[in-house]
């Protein structure tokens, strides 16, 4: 008999999938979450000293939190199962129901986290229209509401480093400082969704702590460019992390022998940070290798980090048609809309893989 893990008895394409029909892609550029834990990472996980995390007795998790706090220049950090939970807990601690969060219109917190900020934290968003996901101090001034009985309370500004749906753009440290200054003036808290802050640090040549210096709270994802199977870590002042612990527990994010996961993250911080430069070079090489395909538009034309978009509207083919052709040769890109695709480079695709991908994309679009 066939069973399903999905909530509904019939399931659906996205919630229940026959394990035997999960496709394999030789070159998977759909996301930097596609990475598999390396042999060395798995060995580090197997060798990790562990204890009960809920009792603050897991030595590997404690060590990881210290390292992350250090890396981000914050007092304390908290290990969590996902980046989504990092954002949600930050909003839960900082905001009260009815409060308003200012973010970019293409922000992950707004469009890609199941509406958790509204459903769980009771907050609402006020979004700034921006193609690359970056906004200014003037935008913060324009979008924060003066205190009135009838208005929602403007409470927090959320910035995303790098901007995922903004095409991997890197917020300059100076722009972050300007936004933070405007937020402070308006009495607002600043939170950084730093899912790819490590990429921003490598791309800009400025340490992660410099990017985080003007924000109140910040997190990094281990399951993106850093190549871990699971996890994120949220950082900020000690009292914030103390309050965040309560929410971690309430939401079911408190773990037991989490050291096996924290060990993967510690391994990644040691071995997978500097090499992000390779992913950025590979994204640039991929973009350069396909930019002359007739009808294809690339955004941004020169990738700043490991993400860029392909607008295929002028090619005479739809994104799903192109994706199907690519799949025949073992390549996957993201299909965002009928005319838009996304390419994300990561540590499981090397330069020879990129060179192959260039040929496959050319054939899929022009062949
Ligand atoms: C992936 C991502 C998240 C969520 O992280 P998960 O670990 O997948 O929950 C949040 N923000 C951005 C910008 C992301 O890319």
Automatic annotation (TrEMBL):
The modification N6-(pyridoxal phosphate)lysine is found at residue 224. Signal peptide: none annotated. Residues 1-24 are annotated as: Disordered. Residues 1-16 have a biased composition (Polar residues). Residues 28-310 form the Aromatic amino acid beta-eliminating lyase/threonine aldolase domain. One of its GO terms (molecular function) is L-allo-threonine aldolase activity. GO terms for biological process: glycine biosynthetic process; L-threonine catabolic process. Pfam families: Beta_elim_lyase. Its cofactor is pyridoxal 5'-phosphate. One of its GO terms (cellular component) is cytosol. Keywords: Lyase, Pyridoxal phosphate. Belongs to the threonine aldolase family. PANTHER family: L-THREONINE ALDOLASE, L-THREONINE ALDOLASE-RELATED. Homotetramer. This is Aromatic amino acid beta-eliminating lyase/threonine aldolase domain-containing protein. It comes from Rhodobium orientis.
């Amino acid at each position: 008999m066939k069973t399903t893990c999905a909530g509904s008895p019939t399931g659906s394409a996205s919630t229940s999938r026959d394990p035997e029909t999960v496709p394999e892609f030789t070159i998977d550029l759909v996301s930097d979450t596609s990475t598999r834990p390396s042999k060395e990472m798995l060995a580090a996980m197997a060798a990790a000293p562990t204890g009960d995390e809920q009792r603050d007795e897991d030595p590997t998790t404690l060590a990881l939190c210290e390292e992350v706090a250090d890396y981000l220049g914050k007092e304390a950090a908290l290990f969590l199962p996902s980046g989504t939970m990092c954002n949600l807990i930050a909003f839960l601690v900082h905001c009260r129901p009815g409060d308003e969060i200012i973010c970019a219109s293409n922000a992950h917190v707004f469009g890609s986290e199941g509406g958790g900020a509204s459903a769980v934290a009771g907050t609402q968003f006020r979004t700034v229209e921006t193609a690359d996901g970056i906004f200014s101090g003037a935008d913060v001034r324009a979008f924060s509401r003066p205190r009135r009985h009838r208005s929602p309370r403007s409470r927090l500004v959320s910035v995303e480093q790098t901007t995922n749906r903004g095409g991997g753009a890197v917020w300059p440290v100076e722009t972050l400082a300007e936004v933070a200054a405007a937020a402070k003036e308006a009495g607002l808290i600043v939170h950084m969704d730093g899912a790819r802050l490590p990429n921003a640090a490598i791309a800009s040549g400025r340490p992660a702590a410099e990017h985080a210096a003007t924000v109140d709270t910040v997190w990094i994802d281990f399951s993106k460019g850093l190549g871990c199977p699971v996890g994120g870590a949220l950082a900020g002042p000690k009292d914030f992390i103390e309050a965040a612990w309560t929410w971690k527990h309430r939401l079911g994010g408190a773990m037991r022998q989490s050291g096996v996961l924290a060990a993967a993250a510690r391994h990644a911080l040691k071995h997978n940070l500097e090499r992000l430069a390779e992913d950025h070079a590979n994204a640039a090489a991929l973009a350069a290798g396909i930019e002359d395909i007739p009808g294809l538009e690339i955004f941004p034309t020169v990738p700043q980090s490991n993400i860029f978009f392909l607008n295929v509207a002028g090619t005479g083919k739809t994104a799903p048609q192109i994706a199907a052709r690519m799949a025949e040769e073992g390549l996957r890109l993201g299909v965002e809309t009928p005319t838009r695709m996304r390419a994300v480079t990561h540590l499981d695709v090397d330069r020879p893989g990129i060179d192959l991908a260039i040929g496959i994309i050319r054939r899929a679009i022009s062949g």
